[in-house]
Amino acid sequence: MGIIISSVYSLDKEKQQDQVKSSLDNIYLKKTIKEITENLEPRYEIIIYKSMSGDTYESILNKLNIDIDEKKLLLNTILNEKSLKILRINQNFTFKFDNLASQKISEFKIETDKKNEILFTKSEVEKKFLSKKIKKNFTKKTVYKETVISNSLYSSAINLGIKPNIIIEFARLYGFQVDFQRDIWKDDSFQIIYEEFVNENDKVVDTGEIIFANLNLQNKDLQLYKFEYEKNKIDYFDENGKSIRKTLMKTPINGARLSSSYGKRKHPILGYTKMHTGTDFAAPTGTPIMASGDGKVTKAGWCGGGGNCVKIRHNSKYQTVYAHMSKFGRNIKRGVRVKQGQIIGYVGSTGMSTGPHLHYEVIENGKKINSQKLKLPSGKILKGEERKKFEVDKIKIDVLKSNLIVKLN
Ligand SMILES: [Zn+2]
To answer: What's the chain's Rg over C-alpha atoms?
Structure first.
């Protein structure tokens, strides 16, 4: 029925692994909800949904296979509940379906936070829902885990007892700067701090947020810190206060003039009309060229007509190319990880070129696209008061990490 279920903790280990594998395959499609219908009784179905960024109550209800009138009733019921005024991410929604009834949902629950939820039960007589606040008897625990990746990231994480939800979130957060298919090598390692909720019997019943993570790839640390930069607005930032949700730069060079845009043009040397698959920026020889996003250098060498060129793979989707350089940046060679804004080379006129300029290309899923028309989430950079608050929070998280590591040993 087009909706998938996310209650994965009741499944056995093997199934959990399969689920994580398949969701990692789908991670870039943001399919974080999954299916466990085989455990359900035929008449009643339970559907659990975890809210994501961009969701509204309406968009969540639209995922349910119910008619318009029932949707309206549910939406009004939710909107009338004061404690549900703000829809947050990672809030669990549980819908109980009675497939024999004409109005299918007999009850539903919405978490207000990890310890509290509101239960709505259908009153058959008046065709409305009655609400009741329920306190869950959970304790929040902060967990620290670290390991060397021996086989694969997910099997290493599962072996540590990390819940699939957390692994999925971890992979999603790093998906902006890491290509999981190619960039994880044997003996790379990771550290992670996250929240778990346990019941009276000390059994983990749910997971919360990732607070800190560090992925060490070929001896390079990629850290991320959770930070609430505005009330109810949470994002993840690297140690320099840059959002990990980074865009590629449209102009990876300062003080340059766009001299030739993407599209069909008469080639300045060849003389005939040809597709120009990049954007040219005219600038004096020696002007620094920056990496337009975090990533891994896959080429730093001679590219024929492109002269001295650098190619960077940013994640599983995007690559960028910088051509005609006079020389390469310090330590820029194949296999090196670079940060957004790092100098990777200097403007020149090497290869097939009529004068000093940068030829810049963006490749999306293997296809060259117009970099000037890119629509990617803008990477927030914390400044001023926000930055100060972030630095304080970062120290707190580092102290928390040290304390948890001491407990571990
Ligand atoms: Zn060009």
So the answer is: 25
Distance 136 CA to ligand 1 centre (A): 61
- Per-10-residue mean pLDDT, the chain, length 409: 33 50 43 35 74 90 90 93 88 86 88 87 84 86 93 86 87 84 87 92 87 94 93 87 85 85 81 86 93 94 96 94 97 93 95 94 94 79 95 97 88
Q: Give the separation between CA 230 and CA 267, rounded to whole angstroms.
A: 50
Question: Distance, CA 259 to ligand 1 centroid (Å)?
Answer: 9
Give the sign of the dihedral formed by CA 355, CA 358, CA 362, CA 363.
positive
Question: Which domains can be identified in the chain, with CATH numbers?
Answer: 44-135 (3.10.450.350), 139-237 (3.10.450.350), 257-373 (2.70.70.10)
pTM comes to 0.68
Phi, psi of 324 (to 5 degrees): 70, 25
pLDDT value at position 7? 34
Q: How many CB atoms lie within 10 A of CB 71?
A: 15
360 C-alpha to ligand 1 centroid (Å): 7
Cα 278 to averaged position of ligand 1 atoms, centre (Å):
5
Report the candidate in 402, 399, 394, 404 with the shortest Cα–Cα distance to residue 143: 404
Distance 283 CA to ligand 1 centre (A): 13
- For residue 173, what are the β-bridge partners? none
pLDDT, residue 269, reads: 77
Which ranges in 27-140 belong to alpha helices (H)? 57-61, 68-79
Strands (E), 124-184: 128-135, 139-148
Distance CA 405, CA 409 (A): 7
What element of type H or E holds 190?
A: strand 189-198
What is the Å distance from ligand 1's center to 322 Cα? 9
